[in-house]
Amino acid sequence: MDVTNFSSQPHWRHCYRNICTDNFVERKHSFPSPFTTSFKTHSRTKKITMSSEVVFNLEYLTRLEESARTLESTPQQRSEMMFKAQREVDAYLEQLSLDHPTGWVIPPKETQGQDKLVQPGQYQVQSGPNQVQSGPDRVQSGPYQAQSGPDQVQSGPDWVQSAPDQAQSGPDRVQSGPDQVQSGRGPHETEPLPIQENGVSIDEVLRDFSRIGNEMEREGHPGHMAYVPGNSTAPAAIGDFLAASFNPYSLNVASCRRAVKMQQMIVQWVGRLFGYPSACAGNLTSGGTVATMVAMTTARDHKVPRSKDYSRSVLYLSELTHDGVAKCLSTLGMREAVVRKVPVDDKYRMDVNILRKFIENDVQNNLLPFLVVATTGTTDVGSVDPVPAIRAVATQYNMWLHVDACYGGFFVLCNSAKHLFEGVETADSIAVDPHKGLYAPFGTGLVLVRNGTLLRNSNTRQHGNYMQDQLTNPEDWNPEDLTFEQSAHFRAPRVLLPLQLYGVATFRDALQEKLELAKYLYLRLKGQAHIQVVEPVLSTVLFRIPGVSDNTNRALLREITTDGRFFITTTTVKGVLYLRVIIFCYRTHRQDVDVFINKVKDAVVKMELPEVEFCHAG
Q: How many Å apart are CA 512 and CA 401, to the nearest integer?
């Protein structure tokens, strides 16, 4: 059962056909492409006049959607990819009985009764009625044969299917119930199948595991517009499957040079995106917080080499910096360090003038400013700090500049957003999350340090005696010498396979579509009575009913989300409570946003607010 891609369900499509969008309200404003200035509607190019001046190019948005939909695999495609990968794994596992650990084939006399060696490319693995069997044209035979229909992939009579006990609250819902936003046990939650002395059937295991789909936030659903939703593509899942099946130790050239090369290729590619020199170094991590911690460790070792100075060291953040940054100080043994939260300006960017005053005051008080963190894509608002100005201050006071690009970083792929990343190439380190902008599974962060030698100096591993016979080359930059992690999961395939299969252009279009949809939502809400909306920088849109209590705005949130079709949350910025929408899931398209807009309008009408003469926009 596909619990995330409800956009393919008939009921979901039926809703789109029966919801009419209203005309846009006049509002004179100018925007860059795909907006153009005009005084009339251009029906041939499918442009909708938003006002007397602004025209929204729906043809451009449709093209982006068509490209982005490449990421939405069908059951047949998923089945094909999985079984092709399975053939490779079967051949590899069969080969394990014939190979030495170093990979070369044992001579025939050592095959322990085998008639012949299994050569690469010959996948005749047969041993029982439930066996996956593959040849040139065969995928599988036996009772667990893959079946592909319009809406499901089955793998046997008891495979995961939608059933009454699976506790869905409607076919299109993001959550398992209207009130399941809070943590805690819901009405349909069950205990996982226990670990037992004796095993059970694969059918029972899969049936038990499938319940997780009804006891989770469905972050891949097009209506999930809260937090920064995680998404994963089919090739990324295949990448994890292959990584776990081949299971190389991927942090050392001597163990698996090709795995190291795959990781280094990803790191260098991301470095080039941000304008870093080839001398940069980095690593794939378990997420943005660990990426930030690796960068901060390097900053600490370079700027504050003596632990006796930790208590007078100062870290500078904006009031909108992600909470994971300050959290890292405790892990780094710098709990006593001073943390300064710099206010943001009216565009929600770090106020550099106040930053400078904070630093000057700290220097006068014999404190040690050592690190400032700029953000390109704040989690609350999507705002981007002025990196060039912050770089100038950091240089003046000999501080390390780290850029948190975890949410916004991969928007650098989009031509319309490249200017937002000006100056990032001068940062000492960057943290970015492929499990956000590249739609990799959760647990995929990436750290970059501009001067790779500094990163290596902070993390070089001194091997134990048990590894003294391993051949090493001092010129090899092993991933284990660029992070504190060892025995880490081989994360590269989950990032690399989708990029290789779809190409960078597909991801660029998917991300550009989200930027356009955020502008689209902003323009539609901007014309609605009783709604104040903040113009988006990236793909996050804040809105609220002005002039009423926070409880009234929370009531609006409940009205919008009560049926579970959409999941959004609130945030508080500069003391003001907003409803927050982030458009980030690659399955979210214009028809989903249109449905959401109508739900907002209906919710406002139900609240019976007094008439206003103009709409509020912020």
A: 28
Q: Which token pair is 548?
A: 């009423």
* C-alpha distances in Å from residue 115, one per residue of 110, 132, 533, 597: 11, 21, 73, 67
**Which among 100, 102, 96 is positioned nearest to 471, based on CA atoms?**
102
The residue to which tokens 């081949």 are assigned: 246
Cα–Cα distances (Å) from 89 to 30, 73, 86, 147, 228, in that order, read: 55, 22, 5, 21, 34
> Which DSSP symbol is given to 421?
G
Give the burial class of 453: count Cβ atoms within 10 A of its Cβ; 0-12 exposed, 13-18 middle, 19 or more buried: exposed
Q: Measured at the alpha carbon of residue 563, what is the angle toward residues 190 and 568, in degrees to the nearest 5?
A: 90
Q: Beta 532-534 vs 540-544: how paired, if at all?
A: antiparallel
Tens-place pLDDT, residues 378-436: 999 999 999 999 999 999 999 999 999 999 999 999 999 999 999 999 999 999 999 99
- Per-residue pLDDT tens digits for 326-366: 889 989 999 999 999 999 999 999 999 999 999 999 999 99
State the pTM of this model: 0.76
What is d(CA 414, CA 502) in angstroms, rounded to the nearest whole number? 16
Higher pLDDT, 263 or 47: 263
Nearest 5°: phi and psi at 214?
-105, 5
Task: Compute the residue count for the chain.
Answer: 618
pLDDT digits (tens, 9 = 90+) for 113-129: 333 333 333 333 333 33
What sign does the CA torsion over 240, 243, 249, 253 have?
negative
From CA 565, how far away is CA 587, in angstroms rounded? 14
User: Which amino acid is residue 471, in one-letter code?
Assistant: L
Q: CA nearest 394: which of 315, 298, 330, 329?
A: 315
- As a whole number of angstroms, the longest Cα–Cα distance in the chain is 91
- Enter the tokens of residue 163: 């059933």
* Bridge partners of residue 48, in order along the sequence: 56
In this structure, what DSSP letter does residue 401 have?
A: E
CA-CA distance, 447 to 291, in Å (whole number)?
Answer: 5
CB–CB of 209/551 below 8 Å? no
Cα gap 143→194, rounded to integer Å: 26
**What's the CA gap between 381 and 348, in Å, rounded?**
8
Could you tell me what percentage of the chain is helix, strand and coil, using 3-state DSSP and rounding each to the nearest 5? 40, 15, 45
CB burial of residue 594 (10 Å; 0-12, 13-18, 19+): middle
- The span from the CA of 189 to the CA of 3, in Å, is 16
Give start and end residues of each alpha helix (H) in 464-584: 492-502, 504-526, 550-561
CA gap 381, 326 in Å, rounded: 19
Rg (CA), the chain: 27
What distance in Å separates the CA atoms of residue 522 and residue 540, rounded to the nearest whole number?
10
Q: Are 539 and 514 in contact (CB under 8 A)?
A: yes
- CB neighbours of 96 closer than 8 A, spacing ≥ 6? none
Distance, CA of 96 to CA of 101 (rounded, Å): 8
Q: Which residue has the tokens 């499990």?
A: 435
Written as six digits, the tokens of 605 are: 């009408």
